[in-house]
Amino acid sequence: MARGAMKQIIDDSAVRVEHPPDGGSSLDGQVDHDRSARVWGAIRAVADGEGTAPSLQHAVSACAQALSATGAGLAMTRSGGLLEPLLATDPEIGELDELQFELGEGPSGEASAANAPVFETELAGVAAGRRWPAFATAGTDRGVHGVFAFPVAAGAAKLGVLTVYRTQPGPLYSDQVADALVYADAVFVLALDQRQGISADLDGVIDAAFTARRAEVHQAAGRLASQERISVTDALARLRAHAYSNGLSLQSVAIDVMAGRLQLDGDTGDPDPPGSSGPKTKRPGNVEKEQEED
C-alpha cells in the first residue's frame, strides 16, 4: 500500500477509534480524539525513525515506550483459536511470549479467552503463582514483575493479544491503560492493512510470519491427536507437558514425534498439566521389548 494511503488510514483511525457512545459529553469526545491522535503520532514517530510506513512492529514498540515497559509482544490467532507469538520488541520479550504458548498458561491466553484485559501487577506474588505456576516462575526468573495483556479485537472479531512486560511491580496508571487500549485498536487497524486493505482475512499475515518450527508443532499435535483419538488441543497440551516436565523445547519434542523417535502414550482424559510428571515416553526399542515380555 502506498505511504499516502497508509497515512490516510491512520488519520481516519485517529478520529474514529475512540468516539464516545451516544450520550457521551463533547469533552470526553475531545479527550478520546486527542489520545488517539497522540497514540498514532507516536507510532508514526517510531516508523519515521526507520524511514518506513507504520507497521505492527512500530505499534508494539511505541506501546512499550508509552507504558514505560521493558518490552511488548504481539500474539495472533486464526479464527479465535490458539494464540501464536508473532513479533516482539526484542528476543527476550519474544521468549516470554513463546513461553506462554509452550506452557499453555499466562495472561495473554486469558485475555484472549475472556476478550478483556488481564492485569498482573506482581508475577512473584502468591496469586500469580497459583494462577500461572510455571509462567510466573519463568517470568520472575527473567526479572519481569508486571504483565498486562490487551485483546486486539473489535466485537466478535478476535485477532490477537498485545502483551506488555515491565520489570517493576505495580499497576498501570489509568491514563496508561487508556493509551494501551488505543494501541490495541491501532494494532487491529495495522494488521488488517497488511492485507492491502481493510479485510477480516488475516491468514496471509499469519502464514507469512509463522515459522517452519510452528508448523512442526502443529503437525506433531495433529499426528498425536490421530494416534490417541483426542482433540488437537489436548494433543498440544500433552506435547507441552512432556516438554516442560523433561526440560525440553516444544520444537524438539515435536521433531522427535514427527520422526517417530518419541511416542507419548496416555488415556484420552484430561492431559497432564505443565509441571506434572507428564505422559510416559517410549522409544521404539522399548516398545518392542515390552511387546516381547507380554
Give a structural overview.
A hairpin with a 5-residue loop joins strand 1 (71-77) and strand 2 (83-88). By secondary structure, the chain is α+β, with helices and mostly antiparallel strands. 55% of the residues lie in helices and 14% in strands. The chain has 13 helices and seven strands. The radius of gyration is 21 Å and the shape is globular.
List keywords for this structure.
294 residues; alpha+beta; five-stranded antiparallel β-sheet; two-stranded antiparallel sheet; 14% strand
- Broad structural category: alpha+beta
Beta strand count: 7
Average pLDDT, to the nearest integer? 76
Shape: globular
How large a portion of the residues is in β-strands, by DSSP E?
5-15%
Number of helices: 13
Order of the strands making up the biggest sheet: 2-1-5-4-3
Helix content: 55-70%
